[in-house]
TrEMBL record:
Protein name: Predicted protein
Recorded superkingdom: Eukaryota
Domain DUF6532: 184-393
Stretches the record annotates as Disordered: 1-20, 34-158
Pfam family name, one: DUF6532
Species of origin: Laccaria bicolor (strain S238N-H82 / ATCC MYA-4686) (Bicoloured deceiver)
Entry-linked InterPro entries: DUF6532
Biased composition (Acidic residues): 51-79, 89-100, 128-149
Biased composition, class Basic and acidic residues, residue ranges: 111-121
Amino acid sequence: MAGAKSCSAKLIQASNAGNPASIITQELKITSLTFHPDGGTGKRTLRGTDDDAGVDEIDERGDGEDNAGEDKSGEDEDEPAPRRRQVPSDDESNDEDEDEPASRRRKVGKRGQERLAERPMWKTMAPPDDEPSDDGDSGGGAIEEDEDPYSGFADADYVAPGPNMRMIHISEQPQLLQRIIKAAIRKAIGDVIFDTAYRSVDEQVKYNRKTLRSCARKFGANAYAHRFRVDHAFGKVTGRVLNGRVSKYRGDIKKVAMAKVEGFYKLLEGPDCRDVIEHLRSKKRYIYPVNAEGDLQPTKPFFHLAMISTLREAFFTGSRGSFAERYQDRFVSSITDGPRKQERELPAAMVAMAATSIASSLDDYSTGVRRKTEFNADLYEDVYRSHMAMLATICENSPNAYHRLMADLYNCTSSISTHLVTTTTSNDDMADMDV
């Protein structure tokens, strides 16, 4: 049972990623509020809690007749009732002439001016409405009060996108920035393969900024790391490069799956094809292999020949080096003790991505005639998360069965043999899976 808790916890967390409830809203705390006896409000100070921003103080004085109390000093019953007037601040005289113009009465006093002069002359760039203000990375440290967040940009320059362009060109950027972006792309693709293929918009923005800053620091590019932290526009436009590569990765897996489904599922265009697709998509039958008699083998999920072939071609082959070669150190075991901790497994995110691509490719035939469907998060993120949840359930119910499943998938897809069979999962643990 070693590693059971960590295995299921990671998979459940990955399958639930993107939940809007995980978004943390910024709080504002009222630190000082002074009320006058007549109900008027004096000075209020609001302090933000954003670690990246300096503390901004907002002084609100009573305005006109709504918030001002009456000055009753020297009041005589023979004299007409005095006019309502503004409550003076602590540093202004209480003997102020009532006939004084309103603009004079509302003027900030000497103490207020001194307080304004002591404020820092900068503040963190406010992010756009669709972007969170903090990426959750505390590794960069807080900005000192006398530190200018916009300093050092001369050493962190970049070439902005051209007219009507949303994305920068890597080849046009300074050499150091090119290295940072390429390193961030490599990490982003690895995390998509081994952690999760889909994040919410807010999570992706945070992830991009954190990854770019981390890569900048690894290259000793502190000026760029500093700019990624304080210049949200720069982080956003650079992060679009990572988004584009992640989207391309998902599209490439779908292209591989598209070439597999027609032959492996024996699809023929026509009226009967719709019924075949509906049958395969029901209860995820498309992920299970069939025996010689055509019967489904429910104890071997994700071992359909279309799955094996898609995983093999998408991740273990490539003329310029495969994903498996590039990230070979990230193939590990979910078992942490004993000899089986040396047996490599396929990551759940990889298996779920291949299964989702096959589901989308089958949907191309849903009308009876092959028509390419859109393969985007809005349509298929739920399919992906259902596969992740299924794997998490297997891991939670039987860690040994989960390990055997994923280790056998690794051995089958990484084998140099071109003869693909589905008899490698004869281990008794597989029969105990409740799927």
